[in-house]
């Protein structure tokens, strides 16, 4: 049996009951076989970054998983689809957005999955909740670099 790996997942939504969608996705992850010890950050509200539409509700979850990174990505995509996620155009508003930020210390660059997530360090909506659950990954300099992005805890 595969040893568990610490994965970090970004959760966000800006359509419908966004906070409820984020919490529901975290609960679904915690009930998935092969995923244990889920820790969820506080919820944050942020203005859309490089997008338009209503404000987002964001969080970051960490969990121990025995799933491979591609298996975990497929699970995240199934949860998005179950929440009604549509992709009509790049950065469209969404009912649920789940991003695999880190899978242990793995590095991957494939058409389907890049690890770590290529833009994690440039987004306040990732850094602030990530600091809640995985503080060793976030530095003061990183937070300073996104100080112009609107974000606050709910």
Provide a descriptive summary of the structure in words.
This protein is α+β, with helices and mostly antiparallel strands and 154 residues long. It has a single domain, classed as 7,8-Dihydro-6-hydroxymethylpterin-pyrophosphokinase HPPK (Alpha-Beta Plaits, 2-Layer Sandwich), CATH 3.30.70.560. It is built from four helices and eight strands. The protein has helices at 18-30, 69-82, 124-133, 140-145; strands spanning 5-13, 35-40, 44-46, 56-65, 97-103, 108-109, 114-115, 151-153. Strands 1, 2, 3, 4, 5 and 8 form a six-stranded antiparallel β-sheet that branches. The longest helix has 14 residues, at 69-82. The radius of gyration is 14 Å and the shape is globular. The model has no long low-confidence stretch (mean pLDDT 93).
Chart the SSEs and their pairings.
Layout: E1 5-13, H1 18-30, E2 35-40, E3 44-46, E4 56-65, H2 69-82, E5 97-103, E6 108-109, E7 114-115, H3 124-133, H4 140-145, E8 151-153
Antiparallel strand pairs: 1-4, 1-5, 2-4, 3-4, 3-8, 6-7
Quote the distance from N terminus to C terminus: 39 Å
N-to-C SSE string, H for helix and E for strand:
EHEEEHEEEHHE
Mean pLDDT: 93
CATH homologous superfamily descriptor: 7,8-Dihydro-6-hydroxymethylpterin-pyrophosphokinase HPPK
Count of discrete domains = 1
């Amino acid at each position: 049996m595969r040893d568990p790996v610490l994965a970090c997942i970004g959760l966000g939504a800006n359509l419908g009951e966004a906070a409820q969608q984020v919490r529901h996705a975290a609960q679904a992850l915690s009930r998935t076989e092969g995923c244990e010890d889920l820790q969820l950050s506080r919820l944050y509200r942020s203005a859309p970054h490089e997008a338009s539409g209503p404000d987002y509700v964001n969080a970051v979850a960490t969990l121990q998983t025995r799933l491979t990174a591609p298996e975990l990505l497929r699970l995240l995509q199934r949860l998005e689809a179950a929440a009604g996620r549509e992709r009509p155009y790049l950065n469209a508003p969404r009912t649920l957005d789940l991003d695999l930020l880190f899978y242990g210390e793995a590095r991957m660059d494939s058409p389907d999955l890049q690890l770590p997530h290529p833009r994690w360090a440039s987004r306040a909506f990732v850094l602030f909740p990530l600091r809640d659950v995985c503080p060793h990954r976030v530095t003061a300099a990183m937070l300073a670099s996104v100080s112009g992005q609107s974000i606050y805890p709910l």
